[in-house]
Amino acid sequence: MISFENYPEISREEIRAALDFCGEQIIGNLPEFTERFQNAYSEDGFYRPIENNYWTCGFWTGEIWLAYEHTRDKRLRDAGETQIRSFLNRIENKIEVDHHDMGFLYSPSCVAGYKLTGSQEGRQAAIMAADQLITRYHPVGEFIQAWGSMDAPENYRLIIDCLLNLPLLYWASEETGNAKYREIAEKHIHTAVANVIREDYSTWHTFFFNRETGAPDHGATCQGYRDGSAWARGQAWGVYGLALAYKYTGWKEYIDLFRHVTEYFLTHLPKDLVPYWDLEFTDGDDQPRDSSSASIAVCGMLEMIKYLEPEDVDHYRRIAGQIMKSLYDSYAVKDRRESNGLVLHSTYSNHSPYNTCNHYGVDECNSWGDYFYMEALIRMSREWEPYW
Ligand code: GLY
């Protein structure tokens, strides 16, 4: 297993200072971002407010709840409750919810609020979101379709990111006593894991199936550099997704897969341990970073160590601390005049000659990068009950 000799780890004092700054930054943002939400990405370092109508809005509410856990400041709780009402309205009126990102939207917002404050509106909204998510299940292919209309053959595919949407379904089964959510989640996990991991343990971003038979067809990228490369965030979703897959299914095979997929991610990091937007690139390449992938992978490692033997626990905890040290030293926002976000140098959508992405949110903060950086800090600072 790779180890990063002589790299410093983030200290307890730095974790505390980082969380204190995040708490202040988020409280400072409340006047602009309580009735409205942060956009998915910043522009020149600053987020604009948007309505609650994009797949990323839950991350901002999640940051509010994490800041509430850190500070217990009532202003944060009040803002979180306002946003839960917005999420309830969104699912009741079906505003931009016909896609698979119900977990990204409703776990860090409504499940979190329910867990932390007992919010009944949060519970109701999250169960409705789980009902919405399972409408996208294809029983022949045994997966949840990511985007687009359910009867268009070109949309018959899953994406690796969806592994993070499934904890919502496990939670809904526990809350309602109805096994249907968990059964669908489990089918999707097995289909996804069986197909998105390549022989060398890099991962496909998206995977297509035969509509008639459900047989695996082919992998492709959407947001990565090219088909066959490893989009950094896809690999990071794989790291965290496999940790959650093991947590929920208990399938022993997933421990080994977690190790391999994580090793691929770690062995493709540049010297400062924060990846370029695609793992094809490394030191010396004139390409943007995706700091959010570093935080997502750290959260996955910190989740997985709950289930591993002591020497593995030490290994992954040390690496998590080393990556967080680099993020804290060289990527984290330290001054509100520089940005109203938390972590710089993320990439949302980067165009390449081989993908169909438009260029936006490149070398900026993004809302999940901020959220997972904070989740990682919280995980390092205390026993934490996950929202996922
Ligand atoms: N789930 C979409 C992304 O990671 O950009």
Helix content: 40-55%
Distance between the termini: 27 Å
Give a quick account of the main beta sheet: strands, pairing sense, barrel closure.
3 strands, antiparallel
Bound molecules: glycine
Tally the beta strands. 9
| Overall pLDDT confidence | 98
| Overall 3D shape | globular
Quaternary? single chain
Topology:
Elements: H1 12-29, E1 37-38, E2 49-50, H2 57-71, H3 74-92, H4 102-117, H5 120-134, E3 137-138, E4 143-144, E5 157-159, H6 167-176, H7 180-196, E6 206-209, E7 216-220, H8 232-249, H9 253-267, H10 291-304, H11 310-330, E8 346-349, E9 360-364, H12 367-381
Antiparallel strand pairs: 1-2, 3-4, 5-6, 6-7, 8-9
Helix pairs in contact: 1-2, 1-12, 2-3, 2-4, 2-12, 3-4, 3-5, 4-5, 4-6, 5-6, 6-7, 8-9, 8-10, 10-11, 10-12
The protein binds glycine (GLY).
Describe the structure using short key phrases.
two-stranded antiparallel sheet; single chain; binds glycine; 50% helix; mainly alpha; globular; three-stranded antiparallel sheet; 388 residues
Characterize the structure shown.
This protein is mainly α and 388 residues long. The chain has helices spanning 12-29, 57-71, 74-92, 102-117, 120-134, 167-176, 180-196, 232-249, 253-267, 291-304, 310-330, 367-381; strands spanning 37-38, 49-50, 137-138, 143-144, 157-159, 206-209, 216-220, 346-349, 360-364. A 3-stranded antiparallel β-sheet has the order 5-6-7, with helices on one face. A two-stranded antiparallel sheet has the order 1-2. The radius of gyration is 19 Å and the shape is globular. The model has no long low-confidence stretch (mean pLDDT 98). Glycine (GLY) is lined by residues 161, 223, 233, 348.
